[in-house]
Specification:
This protein has 144 residues and is mainly alpha-helical. It is built from five helices and no strands. The relative contact order is 0.14.
């Protein structure tokens, strides 16, 4: 009888465990490649959405420069993100498998270096975007 109740209890928990594993896997997939998250705008995305906004009033020279900046920035961040995914997965798998934390130091350091690189790319994008816009355009972009 006790074995039956234990089995029933375990079976009842399976959906919860599966949901947690799925949630953790999805969180890992969506993990941003930056050290600073949620505090700095992603200007190239916002600009793309408001490209022809008359209040933003981008001229053709600005559009060309901003598009080049977008391609350069997005490509560089995607390259870093592709390198991050397997490292983050490996660290998570080793942690759950009981690997000693000190044995994971090199993986954690590699993740930190890549996230720092992605953050610097983001900072450079913000700086260059600001330089390409007038003060009025920049203020409007910040308000979007």
């Amino acid at each position: 009888m006790l074995k039956h109740l234990t089995l029933v209890a375990l079976l009842a928990l399976l959906p919860l465990v599966a949901a947690q594993v799925t949630e953790n896997t999805n969180a890992l997939k969506k993990s941003p490649p930056f050290l600073v998250t949620g505090k700095m705008p992603h200007f190239t995305k916002t600009l793309k959405q408001h490209w022809d906004d008359p209040k933003l009033a981008l001229d053709e020279t600005q559009k060309k420069a901003l598009m080049q900046l977008r391609k350069k920035t997005v490509g560089a961040v995607q390259r870093v993100a592709r390198q991050l995914k397997p490292l983050e997965s490996a660290v998570a798998e080793h942690a759950l498998a009981g690997t000693l934390p000190k044995e994971q130091a090199s993986g954690v350091d590699a993740i930190a270096r890549l996230k720092a690189e992605a953050t610097m790319i983001h900072l450079e994008c913000i700086y260059q975007t600001r330089a390409l816009l007038s003060p009025e355009q920049y203020a409007y972009l910040l308000a979007l």
